[in-house]
Amino acid sequence: MVRKVVLYADIDTPRLWYVVDVIFVHWLNCNVELHADPTRKSDLSYAAHQPEAGGLWIPAEGSAILQTELHKQPAYSYDEAMLRLYPTAHDQAWQHDVFAAVFWFISRMEEQTDFVSTDQHGRFLYSDSFFSKNQIIPRVWVEDWIVELGAALNLEPVQPKQEVLGWDLDNAYCYKGKPIFRRLGLAMKQLLSGQIGTCLAALGLGKDPHDIYADLLEMMDENHKWIFFIPLANRSDFDRNIGYDSKKYQELVVMLHQRAQVGIHLGYAGHEGLDEHKAEIERLESITGKQVKDNRFHYLKQVIPQSWAALEKLGIERDHSLGYADRIGARAGVSWSFPCYDLVRECALKLEVFPFIIMDETLRASMGWGAEKWAEIENELSALVRDCSQVNWVFHPDLLGEVNQWRGYSASGWKLIRDIVGRGN
Question: How many CB atoms lie within 10 A of CB 164?
Fold first, then answer.
């Protein structure tokens, strides 16, 4: 039986309705009755002053909900055991304005100020985040708050423990499916570097280093979610995927679609308007014969909330792009999925966001993990994985391909994947 929570609030804004829905309906699996009668007995109250009717009192003090001082960093208290945004000084109140704190994180308010900085790809980075600036561990603090609040109301989050293996096929094959002139150029590059095996593979005389999919699909089980994101953009400086008209590439996409879940990996160059991204989605739909509902942006390039609104217009239902490009951790303070909020139009969207926590390229390129460090990856990430209910991994075929800058990583990469699969069985 689904529990109902009666909530009194002395304010009425779209932001409050949204965050109440996310916390109680999506995460705690209960119904909510929100009312404005301070004399009515309620399970909890969200108000500036403690109501006479009693119940758990959450002080309405956070500017994220009250819409004051929007561009200021929220007040906070922190030690390694707990972070609290908008802490309160009231002895009889909940420790902090948890509604405003959750909203501030999942709306990505910190990314939507006039003075926020981005990298050369227009991405918001960990180095410019609240976590980094205040030397706070980027872990799932929001989940701690929800578990704590739920316990006070005899509710438990219903988010199952799960690890998701997401694969971005930026370079689905090293050589297969590519034009002959590109393969000859790649073969010469490998020959000059002394890599005879990959040189032969480029010439079609050996197995493609990225032809790992049969082995991956053999490892699939019911306890893990596998999803492959397929790039089908026109070629550009940062869109280097195999051509969408390649027969071998289309055969791979069909095989993955039949055995696993696939989504679109929307291209770098298509952000100027909807037309290019719409064409990419239509290409994937023509190959699989099914509507495309999932996306992850190539290079994680997005502008929030404009990119969220654009995805909704394109018919995408689930986005998997929210995470740091330069650091592992929980960018929104949570590993659970949530419907997003548009701060420009002040409304909730239907699009659901699935944050990721760890990306292979981040560990190698941004955090400087060499191949020898990857042998200890389980020990290094155990605390982060243990904290999260849903650990979304982002992998690339390069991790297992033993080519170029990824040479030496494949043994540790395969071991990591086997360990992830083994944890769920």
Answer: 20
